[in-house]
Amino acid sequence: MQKYFGYLVAVVSLVLTGCGYNTLQSTDEQIKASWSEVVNQYQRRADLIPNLVNTVKGFAEQEKGVLLGVTNARSKVTGIQATPELVNNPEAFTKFQAAQGELSNALSRLMVVVENYPQLKSDANFRELQAQLEGTENRITVARNRYIKAVQDYNVTVRSFPSNLTAMLFGFQTKPNFTVENEQAISVAPKVDFGTPAKAQ
């Protein structure tokens, strides 16, 4: 009996492997790892913002509207629980994406305002924050690209035959991804380079 059970396990394993089960599992795990890195980098950006706003306020307190815009956008971002389950919920994912885009736009407006304050641009603390923000934006781009690729690989497996049958059997569904519109917004925001090399982060 034990011998036949061993054969059964071997057959089932072979069938699942041939039908894409292992690929579904591995690509799903890659999405989770990639998403974790995306969240970490967005959190790093959010953590930089209070010091950035306070530094700008010290030189340009009259720019209250722009500073408030950044603060409010950050509040929306930090108010969203970016759990691994969020990537399975298209509506929640879209909300997360929109909040991050709003923060990017608010930071862009802030950096435009900074151009009008030479003393602020030459302030050592601001230069350090600017360098850290630039490094973080680069990390966000890399992390997002890895996530996009991971989701593409997974979704292709979910939709392709015969792995799509396995996906239906075990409840694997396609996952939302960053949209083209959002990618265009990210590619131009925020500009934080003022003409001097940023410190390596």
Quick overview of this protein structure:
With 201 residues, the chain is an all-alpha fold. It has helices at residues 2-18, 21-59, 64-78, 90-114, 118-121, 124-159, 163-170, 180-188.
Features:
201 residues; mainly alpha; de novo design (two linked rop proteins); 76% helix; elongated; disordered C terminus
Task: Explain this structure.
This protein is mainly alpha-helical and 201 residues long. The chain has a single domain, classed as LemA-like domain (de novo design (two linked rop proteins)), CATH 1.20.1440.20. The protein is built from eight helices and no strands. Helix 2 packs antiparallel against helix 3 and helix 2 runs antiparallel to helix 6. The protein is elongated. Mean pLDDT is 83; it is low at 4-16 and 182-201.
